[in-house]
């Protein structure tokens, strides 16, 4: 018996139907070659019969990305973890610390006012209580400055700068980078990763690595003339190999593995300086966080086909976030098991501090439009994720 299918959210309602007989309802042609067969709903037991298809289960990773809270906002952050995250269905929390942590192994790199190890342990405990996986982040390689302010690593170790002496007050660049070939840089970076990951009790670590523009600079004595794809891939491998020693999974942003010129994606969401070739030179156990904020581009599918576990990462447009989720659902429903399983889920970005985001979540006025829009997107996305699980 044929059915009519109607979509209702993430489910499909199917009504059984039968064609009307040709005697009473002759077949009508609207144009040569087109046949329209009238249909009627068939009553079953004096009621319209319908069947409800099983909803596609939500993907396994339902993540939220926030900047680490200040010490003053720590009580609010703990409340947000315990109350909001389980309610919304979040099961992974990426907290971006960068150098806002009181490192004891490398105290010269600690930004003033960062959280202590004991305070991070309270966050980790709250996450365990809430059933949330805590994944700390330090943005490595690029993003070593913002506007005129150089971040703590290069302030403490200017010798690590990819472009030392160039760009006074960071004029004319987006962000500084450290030189991945400096012989001492990883001694410091590994200490930072290990101390923060240990405090968080983490089994994964997010290394950032997005929007790296300064790489293989012509004035760098170590990097000049080298293949930028290989420089990037080598740094990815170096960080991944180190994390593997402590059995931690590496997470990173995915944009430098995409080609931005011929695809039209541009230099922000993708690479315009030749790093895209690194994708074939790095291990495929790295979780790629595929951020796109204005369009639901088909790049998560590309990474999954290439063999990587991938998360789609929206920001402040609900329609984009839901379109990304639809793509995940479609692939997980129709692709081969190998590809489907690699479409791991979502990482909702906010580009907000945990304190401001939590205050807006609990009903206070949002501190700015970005917080308000990210919160609206978060609510819409996680409402749909819960619906996929029948919640």
Structure overview:
With 391 residues, the chain is α/β, with parallel strands linked by helices. It has two domains: 3-52, no CATH class; 61-388, Glycosidases (TIM Barrel). The protein is 34% helix and 21% strand. It has eleven helices and 18 strands. The chain has helices spanning 74-88, 117-130, 152-156, 185-200, 228-245, 266-269, 299-306, 318-334, 337-342, 354-361, 369-388; strands at residues 3-8, 11-19, 28-31, 34-36, 39-41, 43-44, 47-48, 50-52, 61-67, 92-96, 133-140, 145-146, 149-150, 204-208, 249-253, 287-291, 310-313, 343-348. The strands form five sheets. It has an eight-stranded parallel beta barrel, surrounded by six helices. Strands 1, 2, 5 and 8 form a four-stranded antiparallel sheet that branches. The longest helix has 20 residues, at 369-388. It is globular, with a radius of gyration of 25 Å.
Strand content: 15-25%
Following the backbone from N to C, one meets helices and strands in this order, namely: EEEEEEEEEHEHEEEHHEHEHEHEHHEHH
Task: State the distance separating the first and last CA atoms.
Answer: 32 Å
Backbone CA Rg = 25 Å
CATH top level class name of the largest domain: Alpha Beta
Please mark out the parts with pLDDT under 50 across 5 or more consecutive residues, or reply none.
Answer: 1-54
Strand order of the largest sheet: 9-10-11-14-15-16-17-18
Helix content: 25-40%
Number of strands: 18
The CATH topology assignment of the largest domain is TIM Barrel
> What is the CATH superfamily of the largest domain?
Glycosidases
Query: What integer is the average pLDDT?
Result: 89
Whole-number total of structural domains: 2
Q: By helix and strand content, what is the structural category?
A: alpha/beta
The global form is globular
- The tally of helices reads 11
Major pleated sheet: 8 strands, parallel, barrel
CATH architecture of the largest domain: Alpha-Beta Barrel
């Amino acid at each position: 018996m044929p059915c009519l299918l109607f979509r209702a959210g993430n489910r499909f309602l199917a009504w059984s139907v039968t064609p009307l007989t040709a005697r009473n309802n002759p077949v009508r042609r609207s144009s040569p070659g087109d046949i329209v067969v009238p249909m009627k709903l068939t009553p079953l037991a004096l009621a319209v019969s319908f069947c409800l298809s099983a909803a596609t289960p939500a993907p396994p990773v339902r993540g939220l990305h926030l900047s680490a809270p200040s010490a003053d906002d720590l009580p609010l952050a703990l409340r947000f973890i315990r109350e909001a995250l389980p309610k919304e269905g979040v099961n992974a929390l990426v907290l971006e610390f960068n150098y806002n942590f009181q490192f004891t192994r490398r105290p010269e790199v600690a930004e003033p006012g960062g959280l202590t190890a004991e305070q991070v342990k309270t966050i980790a405990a709250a996450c365990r209580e809430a059933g949330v996986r805590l994944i700390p982040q330090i943005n490595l390689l690029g993003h070593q400055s913002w506007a005129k302010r150089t971040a703590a690593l290069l302030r403490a170790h200017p010798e690590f700068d990819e472009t030392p002496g160039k760009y006074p007050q960071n004029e004319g660049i987006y962000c500084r980078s450290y030189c991945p070939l400096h012989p001492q840089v990883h001694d410091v970076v590994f200490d930072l990763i290990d101390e923060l990951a240990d405090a968080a009790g983490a089994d994964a670590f997010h290394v950032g690595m997005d929007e790296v523009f300064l790489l293989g600079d012509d004035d760098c004595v170590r990097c000049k003339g080298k293949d930028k794809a290989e420089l990037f891939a080598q740094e990815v491998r170096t960080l991944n190999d180190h994390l593997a020693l402590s059995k931690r999974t590496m997470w990173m942003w995915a944009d430098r593995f995409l080609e931005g010129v011929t695809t039209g994606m541009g230099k922000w969401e993708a690479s315009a300086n030749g790093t895209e070739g690194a994708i074939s030179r790095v291990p495929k156990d790295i979780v790629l966080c595929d951020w796109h904020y204005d369009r639901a581009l088909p790049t998560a599918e590309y990474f999954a086909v290439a063999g990587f576990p991938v998360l789609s990462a929206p920001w402040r447009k609900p329609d984009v976030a839901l379109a990304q989720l639809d793509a995940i659902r479609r692939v997980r429903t129709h692709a081969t098991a190998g590809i489907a399983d690699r479409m791991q889920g979502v990482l909702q970005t906010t580009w907000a501090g945990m304190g401001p985001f939590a205050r807006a979540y609990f009903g206070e006025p949002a501190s700015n439009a970005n917080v308000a829009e990210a919160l609206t997107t978060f609510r819409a996305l996680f409402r749909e994720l819960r619906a996929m699980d029948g919640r």
